[in-house]
Amino acid sequence: PPPVPPPVPPPVDPRSWVTKTHEPGYCALYDICGHRKDGDVLPCPNNTKAQPPSDVLAKKLQATCPSLWSEQGGAAGHYCCTPQQVDKLATDTSKVAPFTVGCPACLHNFIQLWCVLTCSPDQATFLNVTSVQLAADNNVTAVQQVDIWMNQDFTDDLYNSCKDVKYGAANLPAMNFIGGGAKNGQEWLEFLGEVKDKRRPPVGSPFQQNFNPTGNVTPPDIKPAVENLPSCGDSLFMCSCADCPVAPGCAVPPPAPPPGDHRCMAGAITCWDLTLILTYIGLVAGCGAYAWHFRRRQQEGLQLEQNLGLEAEEPLLGMSAEDPTIGSSVAATAASNGAAGEVDIYDGDGINAESEPLPGDVHYPWLERKMQQAYTQLGEFCAQRPMHVTLAGVVLIGFCLLGLTRFQLETNPEHLWVGPSSRAAQDKANYEASFGPFYRVSQLILSTTLQSQSKYISTSGLPAIVTDDNILLLFQMQAKVDALRGEQLVS
């Protein structure tokens, strides 16, 4: 069975409240009065008027709480915090930044929550000190418990901007780390406000903060805090689609409607199937027609060769029969060639058996004749002008190599994947200008080798990694990592 929730404690009698004045322009907490035993600071239960900012406070508020600074009119406004409180606020909220790197809206809203609770000039209208304690270091009266009332929209907007954010290093929801796995805004606020003494290990608020302790009922003179927070899809604080699925352009398109009976049909088959069948028939018919045409042209070429051979034979036979002088002349020419050692060999049909068709001869197909003529002319041109051809080739190659004059070796892998003018590069530049440089989480995996020195062997057959030398090496590596320091940009 599900666990039974603890009973809601009865509301505290307003006559026992430490905060007496709940009017706009008044504070319920102001300044730091001391520290706990563990060193955490405790604010003062000071029901005083909000104060104008000093120059130091103005600079710190602009850097840490720019939205609140703008809402209250900047230097013309009044505030319920000191520079020391703002420093503490900035330090505490910075611990959330690694879990929300993919969603600037979540980080902004989380910081804005504590800026409102700490520095709002109307703090006394929604915050009440119900009990006090003595600080451990100086015995000065400090806060022990407060009640805070927040508007439902304020609570929901805060939670909705962070509920889908993922912590990439662990591939888990960030709410598991910064909200105790809260399922709604009220659970998150209760987790944030629970005093650390109630937890093991003791991690949490230095004093008890009860959010909306009376539920939907608001005590007299109390006005819940109201704040307009940007959503995770806001254009100024755009989050990634993985951290904000409801952002514009991140919604999954609706599935296509299932196919119905309105499909195109051609008898018993679909129009698509009929198109494929007709296309296949057309391809087969086209290949057959091409083969028949090619075979016909080949036969016509053979017939043309035979006709040319007969035409070359018949005039010689006719002339040798009618005019003996020509025949004797041919015989004399043959005899003289034979005496000189040059005798042509003819086959049985009277055609020179050693002769070959010349380039451009009608025996070759038309395309081949044109290619023969073109390559013949090109070869003659190159042979007649070798220096010109060589020089032209060198000039052409040099022209093609002119691009090397602008060759630059890119060593930044980001530029190989993302152009400098792309949307991703612009978003990264805007993020770093607002929140500082973005660092990717790196993981280091260590393993032993067969050459490692160890008395124990793991199940993988390698020496065990848990040895004194390896543990000392890990501590040394951690010390070097802890010693790394980066520049903190304050805007």
Written overview of the protein:
With 491 residues, this protein is mostly helical. The chain has helices spanning 55-64, 66-71, 83-94, 104-119, 152-160, 175-178, 185-193, 271-322, 324-339, 366-384, 386-400, 413-417, 423-435, 468-482; strands at residues 32-35, 41-43, 127-134, 141-148, 166-167, 172-173, 208-211, 265-266, 269-270. A 3-stranded mixed β-sheet has the order 3-4-7. A two-stranded antiparallel sheet has the order 1-2. The chain has a two-stranded antiparallel ribbon with strand order 5-6. Strand 5 (166-167) and strand 6 (172-173) form a beta hairpin. Helix 5 (152-160) crosses helix 7 and helix 8 crosses helix 9 (324-339). The chain is elongated and about 130 Å long.
Anisotropy-based shape: elongated
Strand order of the largest sheet: 3-4-7
Secondary-structure class: mainly alpha
Distance between the termini: 52 Å
H/E element sequence: EEHHHHEEHEEHHEEEHHHHHHH
Q: How many DSSP-defined strands?
A: 9
Number of separate helices? 14
Please indicate the percent range of residues in DSSP E strands (runs of 2 or more): 5-15%
Unreliable residue stretches: 3-14, 316-323, 325-351
User: Portion of residues in helices?
Assistant: 40-55%
Largest sheet, if any?
3 strands, mixed
User: In angstroms, what is the radius of gyration?
Assistant: 46 Å
Mean pLDDT: 82
